[in-house]
Design goal:
- One of its GO terms (molecular function) is tRNA binding.
- It comes from Weissella diestrammenae.
- Keywords: Aminoacyl-tRNA synthetase, ATP-binding, Coiled coil, Cytoplasm, Ligase, Nucleotide-binding, Protein biosynthesis, RNA-binding, tRNA-binding.
- This protein is α+β, with helices and mostly antiparallel strands.
- The protein has six domains: 6-249, Bira Bifunctional Protein, Domain 2 (BirA Bifunctional Protein, domain 2, 2-Layer Sandwich); 271-365; 386-435, no CATH class; 460-558, Elongation Factor Tu (Ef-tu), domain 3, CATH 2.40.30; 563-717, Threonyl-tRNA Synthetase, Chain A, domain 2; 752-880, Diaminopimelate Epimerase, Chain A, domain 1 (Roll).
- The strands form eight sheets. Strands 1, 2, 3, 4, 5, 6, 7, 8 and 9 form a nine-stranded mixed sheet that branches. A six-stranded antiparallel beta barrel has the order 13-16-20-19-18-22. It has a six-stranded mixed sheet with strand order 30-31-32-33-35-34, sandwiched between helices.
- Strand 19 and strand 20 (538-544) form a beta hairpin.
């Protein structure tokens, strides 16, 4: 077999299918575009859903790609197995209603065995098929010539994830030799639990439609257009070519492992099984976080940002197991960039930025790690003094909050002669997983094809770049209730005209609105929406007012004022995109947008809130370009010429042979398909009205232009005048001074109230300290105080500690709709086993709440003031039981 590098294998795969008429689709961002069902791009087909569900018809129905992907549902397995990864590359070839089994199976065999391509030994290849898929079985045996003893029927070979496309699949395995046999001989077959037969390719025949209510796949109806979806994991097939025991002994991972060795405390990969796990985890996670951050994701406490943070922290912990206590993950970014440079040059281009984000997160975690270790020491000291067991809930907190794997806590506990309550930890973990499942969106792979729209090949020309009125447009299709009609009398329909000035919703810009009139000028329908049909036509949604007929000529008129307002705001998004990159940095990338007549919404990747000074600088820069009255022009050209113009692609897209490039003077040049103003001066003024976070590492700016800015200024002017009246400021400029004076007066009043409350509380406490009760061997004081904050309760407890008139103090504050409880315990009582945290847990349910704390001081909150008396009574009962 050939000796091939990972880059050569990827290139050969793509070139093979290119020779079979496939278009090479570039690897898309790991952050899904316009797909809320996915947290990450998790497969080669994930970026092609629009083609498979018929939403869009591709220019070429044959596609091939090598797609970077992330899956994190089994992070804990990474490092412990030969082939688990978080980031991986999936190579695939896809047919969108074009070729099927008779073509794809022989092609697979040709790529794998032909000396011109992979040149694998045919005797080492084995295949599984779905038992009912006789067609695939026949092709393998009779067309390819696969020996019968190399073909296995496997009942699990049916791809089905719920409603939508589904079908049988065939898997191809490579025999690595008897030295990889499993101990259980019954598992030594392709598809069994063994390391001998390595699955290297899965070919899915997407030919059935899983309809709602059906559970028996033999009753699924066939799809109108059958598809092919294949997947070959690059990491796996590289391990075959490079004769590696696991995926990690390949050129995709070894350079990272060797770089980690250099930073470790003298450890070498392959010398210690436990250390090898750490090397593998670091290599895998370094790749994943490098690519994820490079695509715009940032560490945070939610969503994909939480995944990045978890991967980073897990890698840092494994670094410590190798004796690495300094910042090291950031230093691996250039290593990852070098490995992947041939296909992903953007990693090297953005290496400094990626490394800076990782380094900042490492620094943050090192402090968190120290806090976690401090907490662990406290927990172990308390466990030694009591039960000898660490609560599972505490172990889970260390895992969830501080990033400590359970094994780390258990290891530290064992060294201290302690145990960890694993059952409690598992319960807390299961509760978290249940919450995560409940919050997870429906991750169905794709929708059901619309056969009518998919097959509709009617020509439709858009002329809205230069014309907002078309006097003669022929109505060629009427669709109502998913049926083609010749006439429509009333209601809502979808319609296609041979020519249209109406912009279809695309790229975040809303569709045009307007009217349809007959040749006498009478309005016969209103255009409420326009979408792009699968074959590219503009599909108009019409509210019918008078009968409409196909093959009839109508006049189409766009609502000009609405169109102009939307166009101004779309131009503003381009100017905002450029300004963000100029002021915040080139790594700032668009994450989504919405352009309407009322304003614009622009989402972009950025780590944390944008400082007010920078927001103002962004706004000022855009307004300066508006004042300069820059001309706005557009041109249609070929892709290479567009790149020479310096055009920016907002998303990683596959562009056609002809692209549209929009230029805003010499300030901004972008690939774009939307409508725009004719010059920047038409925008009038740009005003940012809001900046907020929408998710992990994603910020949102909302803004207005033109009439929207005027309305915004008028509204705020009215609010200022109203504020001036309320604070009695003769001039608007005096409002800040008036407010500052009011705030000063308020603070003084609050100080006086607090002082009075404290004085009254002290008096009440002095009286209460005289009322000492007894329960067995212990004395206690319980009292309800008329205070407004927990601070006064704590101050009262401090006064009690100075005199210590009792062993236990229990204070309650009735706040109307809620209750605060505080428990304090004297040192002598603590020595005898009385702990404030235990007591508060016992009595807090009486007030409908819960709480906890240290042995000497604990607090709780609840929503049942009527339960205070019951809580006090339980203090007596609890002390008697001790």
């Amino acid at each position: 077999m050939k000796e091939l590098s990972s880059a050569e294998i990827r290139d050969m795969f793509l070139r093979f299918f290119q020779s079979k008429g496939h278009s090479i689709e570039p690897s898309q961002s790991l952050i899904p575009k316009d797909d809320p069902t996915l947290l990450w791009i998790n497969s080669g087909v994930a970026t092609l859903k629009k083609y498979f569900d018929g939403t869009v018809i591709p220019d070429n129905k044959r596609i091939t790609n090598a797609q970077k992907s992330i899956r994190t549902n089994d992070i804990e397995n990474v490092g412990h197995t030969a082939r688990h990864h978080t980031l991986f590359e999936m190579m695939g070839n896809f047919s969108i209603g074009d070729y099927f089994k008779p073509e794809v199976i022989p092609w697979a065999w040709e790529l794998l065995t032909s000396p011109e391509w992979f040149g694998m030994d045919p005797d080492k290849l084995f295949v599984t098929v779905y038992p009912n898929d006789q067609e695939a079985k026949k092709i393998w045996l009779e067309v390819v010539g696969l020996p019968k003893d190399h073909l296995y029927e496997e009942p699990d070979n049916f791809w089905d994830i719920g409603e939508g496309p589904s079908g049988p699949d065939t898997e191809i395995f490579y025999d690595r030799g008897s030295e990889f046999d499993a101990e259980d001989e019954k598992e030594n077959y392709p598809g069994g639990e063994n390391e001998r037969y390595l699955e290297i390719w899965n070919i899915v025949f997407s030919q059935y439609n899983h309809l709602p209510g059906l559970t028996d796949n033999s009753k699924y109806p066939e799809l109108p257009h059958k598809n092919i979806d294949t997947g070959m994991g690059l990491e796996r097939v590289v391990s075959v070519f490079q004769h590696a025991k696991t995926n990690f002994e390949t050129d995709l991972f070894l350079p990272i492992i060797h770089a980690t060795e250099e930073m470790s405390d003298g450890f070498k990969y392959g010398e210690d099984e436990q250390k090898d796990i750490s090397f593998k985890v670091i290599a895998d996670h370094a790749r994943a976080v490098t690519f994820a951050i490079g695509d715009g994701a940032l560490p945070s406490n939610e969503g994909r940002g939480y995944i990045i943070r978890r991967l980073l922290r897990r890698a840092v912990l494994h670094g410590r197991k190798l004796g690495i206590h300094s910042i090291f993950l950031a230093k691996l970014v250039p290593v990852v960039g070098q490995i992947m440079a041939s296909y992903y040059p953007e990693i090297n281009a953005n290496a400094d930025y990626i490394a800076s984000i990782i380094e900042a997160e490492e620094v943050r975690f090192n402090k968190t790690l120290s806090d976690g270790l401090s907490l662990l020491d406290t927990v172990m000291a308390e466990a030694k003094a009591s039960t000898g067991e660490i609560d599972g809930a505490v172990a889970f907190k260390l895992y969830d909050t501080y990033g400590f794997p359970y094994e780390l806590t258990e290891e530290a506990a064992l060294e201290a002669g302690l145990k960890v309550n694993r059952a409690e930890f598992d319960t807390a973990m299961q509760a978290q997983q249940a919450r995560a499942r409940a919050a997870r969106t429906n991750t169905a792979s794709m929708g059901v094809q619309n056969e009518l729209l998919t097959d509709l090949k009617t020509d439709s020309k858009y002329v809205g770049w230069s014309e907002l009125s078309v006097p003669q447009a022929t109505l060629v299709n009427i669709i109502q209730d998913n049926q083609l009609l010749t006439t429509a009398q009333s209601g809502e329909i979808q319609a296609i005209f041979d020519v249209t000035p109406f912009y279809a919703e695309m790229g975040g810009q809303v569709a045009d609105k307007g009217k349809v009139s007959d040749q006498n000028g009478q309005v016969v329908a209103r255009v409420t929406d326009v979408q792009v049909a699968p074959n590219g036509q503009h599909l108009h949604t019409l509210t019918v007012e008078q009968p409409l007929n196909i093959d009839t000529v109508y006049q189409l008129d766009v609502d000009r004022a609405y169109h102009v307002a939307v166009s101004k705001n779309h131009t503003a998004t381009h100017m905002l995109d450029q300004s963000l990159r100029n002021i915040l940095g080139e790594h700032t990338t668009q994450a989504g947008s919405l352009v309407t007549a009322d304003g614009l919404r622009y989402d972009f990747s950025y780590n944390g809130p944008v400082p007010e000074a920078k927001l103002q600088a962004i706004e000022d820069l855009i307004n300066q370009k508006i004042i300069e009255n820059l001309p706005i022009s557009w041109v249609e050209t070929d892709l290479e010429s567009a790149k020479k113009l310096g055009a920016v692609a907002v998303f990683t897209e596959k562009y056609g042979e002809v692209v549209r490039v929009v230029s805003i003077g010499d300030y901004n040049v972008e690939f774009d398909g939307g409508t725009h103003a004719d010059s920047t001066a038409e925008l009038g003024m740009f005003k940012i009205i809001g900046e907020s976070g929408t998710g992990a590492g994603v910020r949102r700016i909302e803004a207005v232009t033109g009439q929207g800015t005027m309305q915004y200024v008028k509204t705020h002017d009215a609010l200022l005048k109203q504020s001036a009246l309320l604070v009695k400021a003769p001039q608007l400029s005096e409002i800040p001074d008036k407010i500052e004076a009011l705030q000063s007066d308020l603070k003084e009043a609050e100080r006086q109230v607090a002082a009075l409350e404290t004085k009254l509380a002290n008096q009440a406490a002095a009286d209460a300290f005289q009322d000492v009760k007894h329960a067995g061997d212990y004395s206690y004081i319980v009292t309800e105080m008329s205070v407004e904050s927990m601070d006064v309760l704590r101050q009262t407890a401090d006064n009690w500690k100075q005199a210590t008139p009792s062993d236990v103090l229990v204070l309650a504050a009735n706040l109307g709709e809620k209750v605060n409880l505080l428990v304090a315990v004297a040192p002598d009582a603590i020595a005898q086993g009385i702990k404030a945290g235990d007591l508060i847990k016992a009595i807090a349910p009486a007030i409908g709440g819960g709480g906890g704390g240290r042995p000497d001081l604990a607090q709780a909150g609840g929503k049942n003031p009527a339960g205070i008396a019951d809580a006090f009574a339980q203090v007596n009962q609890w002390l008697l039981s001790k």
